[in-house]
Amino acid sequence: MTSGKNAPQPWLEAAQQFQQNLINQWTQAAQAFPGAVAQAPQGSGDPFAAFKVFMPQAGAANPFGMAMPQAGGTMGMPGMGDMFNTAAGQKVSFDPAKLLEIQNTYLKDVAGLWNHGLDHQPQGDRRFAGEAWASNPVAAFSAAAYLLNARTLMALADAVEGDAKTKTRVRFAVQQWIDASAPSNFLAFNAEAQKKAIDTQGESIAKGVANLLHDMKQGHVSMTDESVFEVGKNVATTEGAVVFENELFQLIEYKPLTAKVYERPFLLVPPCINKFYILDLQPANSLIRYCVEQGHRTFVVSWRNPDESMSGKSWDDYIEDAVIKAIGVTQDITGAETINALGFCVGGTMLSNALAVLAARGEEPVNSATFLTTLIDFTDTGILDVFIDEPFVKMREMQFAQGGLMPGRDLATTFSFLRPNDLVWNYVVGNYLKGESPPPFDLLYWNSDATNLPGPYYAWYLRQTYLENNLVKPGKTTVCGEKIDFRLVKLPVYIYGSREDHIVPIGGAYASTQVFPGKKRFVMGASGHIAGVINPPAAGKRSHWVSNANKFPADVNDWIADATEHKGSWWTDWAAWLKPLAGKQIAAPKTYGKGKTYAAIEPAPGRYVKAKA
After folding, report:
1. 605 upstream amide cis, omega within 30 of 0
2. Which among 41, 276, 332, 479 counts the fewest CB atoms within 10 Å?
3. Contact 132, 198 (CB under 8 A)
4. In this structure, how many other beta carbons lie within 10 angstroms of the beta carbon of residue 477?
């Protein structure tokens, strides 16, 4: 035995740190709900207190058992009402007619399940689709019971009376509890994991423990085999050089792949909440390489991963000293009077602000702008709206009043729990219960490569965009000393949205058509936030939709009704749009940068992108 005075073993320290990281992430997510923090007992010593206030109290139905509806209450599930109230931040009520219908349906389905007994098989859920579930009557019954209770809980969430935000919050919180409570997430109930343990004589459990210890050490759940990838070696490999840097970003210029290039250079502004190489994963799916192949002299902003020295940086700093600076440096290096620019996600929001600031100053250095899955009008923000209200934003403003960093891991966790079955529990089950190693996947490697944010930047962004939607109110918001008014931004714009995007809903992306007064083109692609954007033509995948009517009604559904589907990538449509805006072709430069002022500092992808959060 070791003395209590002895120093903890390294593995114990790693385990404790891993657990604390998860606790911090869950607690931070819980704080998005107004009732959670208020009801969590202070000083209880329970690290999960903030989340336990959502959970049904003693006597409530659990997802593995059967709960019989009773007269009054919430389907005979005491404690469920408390969960609904906590998620909404107020006492909720239910539509009586819907509640009666749910009760009757539940009674009927419970009776059917009991009548089938252990012969019942769960249907329509891939978590329970394996042969092991079908061949194990007890497991199959527990899964069927879970699915029945899950359907009933979601029906109850839909029956909550209140405004749209209250209903969305309740539904989100209930869905989180349902997903976390699935019997597939626990070795004691997961028939597939049990069968694999028996078939491998326990080897799968040993590998699962090894995977868990590995993830403890790295501080997050593995989504892919991260050891396979190295930035600059097999991702972010397009040839180029860093030609400028300051404390916020490096500017990369890429080597031309054509004898001639267009005279008007092209600048890409990626989101600073992620690393730029989502646009340069592999040669076959690199949007950056595609731009170079099209003959554009291409520059990319590579954001620095903030450390404590940047903890006081604001939104204004990023607009003035990064986006506007990158535009100016690109002009200086190329000698072009104007450039073409592209912004992706938050990078597009930042680019739009830079254009509005420049327009207010009477400057028009950008000839055209492309916005990929970008929110500028934050009316339709989808599920992310569930996290944002006045108390939450005030909490962040107080937290970062004197500076600080928003950890990249916390941001990544928030986005993962928007799709918990796909991005959290799927890997918990595979990695730990089944002892499987996730296969190499460049996109998931990028997704795990987190980036911090300066706290003041983050707090300003939350209030001005998600909470108050001030950017689209002319003169309401001041950035870099200038009133933001997009009516002054009259350049031609190309706006892209992904149909199944859960981060920037298609309606939110389309809303930018109502913001800019100049010529515009809107294109909708299939799939989601990343897969929709990163869709090279050579792959021949998915579709995109365009409308030749050149009309932009207020409702995206009206636009969709008149749009025509085209097979394949939207990249070719965009390339055809950009070509006439790029000017004449000139001889490609032989060297990077320009003279001593903008001499090559280091090869692409540079140092900044390699820094870990």
Report:
1. yes
2. 41
3. no
4. 22
